[in-house]
Amino acid sequence: MFSDDTAPLNKYVILPKVDLHRHLEGSLRLSTMLDVAKKHGVTVPVSMLNLSGLVQVQDQDPMTFTNFLEKFKTLRLFYKSPDVIHRVSAEAVEDAAKDNIRYLELRFTPVALSRAEGFPLHDVMDWVITSTQEAAKKHKIKVGLIASVNRHESPDLAEQVAWLAADHMKNGLMGLDLAGNEAEFQSSAFYGIFKEARQAGLHVTIHAGEWGPASNVREAIENIGAERIGHGVRVLEDDTVVALAKERNTVFEVCVTSNFQSGVVESLESHPLPRMLERGLKVTVNTDDPSISRITLANEYQIVCEKLKVPLDELKKSIIIAAESAFLKDDEKEKLINSLKKELKL
Q: I want to staple 258 with a disulfide (CB 3.0 to 4.6 A). Which of 108, 207, 272, 288 is the partner?
């Protein structure tokens, strides 16, 4: 999508970065998918170009949440073996490191990864944790993991994932996320599950105010205990919710290209990120699903600065806010912040 912008992109490539909102299931390489299809007999187009149309948003696609979510249906066909899950987990970390991301919080949906072959959820978590930790060490990047559950799936499944996540905290799993189709499914059924997760020590981030109204952001903060909001760009529709978010120091994990491709905003240029900054909200810039959107975090930084006219210094401050909002232990967080401030000359 941005291949013609290589020269101006370079100044964003070299920036040290933090990505708090990236889905493992939206990070698969096309080449890996083709390889897996050949080895495991997954029925998909044999060419990379044709496969791209099924799993990545194309310029001619309708920019709607239904089209965006449709990509995941094909992606879920590929988790055919433990080796595949190990591979895609390791490659997601490697790709982040190549983009000069210093700290990545990678969220993954154990139910989605397990469903193709009926793998036990506990095993899926172990595979993702093992592979991301090994890759993080190899590529000298710090990685935290967040387990994600979907609104359209049963609370019973979500409860299983939450308890397994709490059990894996000692292994680097740090948070629980509620994601999925916000336009058609409510979050009230998950209140108790997230309360128990918080009590167990898990951090909480909630997708809200993306395909649903500002009231969903209020609900995520007040009723679910969200420390961070995934997307949240519709918060500006209600001044009282803006005030609540500022009062609670709620952090917004904004994903500009994703918001355009999923129909949240009409164009990249009309994205509300600059207005969120003007209102004093804590805003971070993230990728969401880099493979589906055909982007890197450097691409997103370029859009924020050049299309949305956010000054580079303001972007750098958002990188520090992201580090300050990481679900890390205090000593690790302080080390990350100090390192980034030094490198960014802040």
A: 288
**CA neighbor of 56 nearest in space, from 75, 39, 80:** 75
**Over its length of 346 residues, how does the chain's per-residue pLDDT go in tens digits?**
434 455 578 899 999 999 999 999 999 999 999 999 999 988 877 677 689 999 999 999 999 988 998 999 999 999 999 999 999 999 999 999 999 999 999 999 999 999 989 999 999 999 999 999 999 999 999 999 999 999 999 999 999 999 999 999 999 999 999 998 888 899 999 999 999 999 999 999 999 999 999 999 999 999 999 999 999 999 999 999 999 999 999 999 999 999 999 999 999 999 999 999 999 999 999 999 999 999 999 999 999 999 999 999 999 999 999 999 999 999 999 999 999 999 999 8
Give the residue numbers marked as catalytic. Answer: 210
Q: Which amino acid is at 74?
A: T
Domain edges within the chain:
3-25+89-114+121-344
- How far apart are alpha carbons 78 and 289 in whole angstroms? 16
Architecture in CATH of 3-25+89-114+121-344: Alpha-Beta Barrel (3.20)
Residues 6+ apart with CB under 8 A from 62: 263
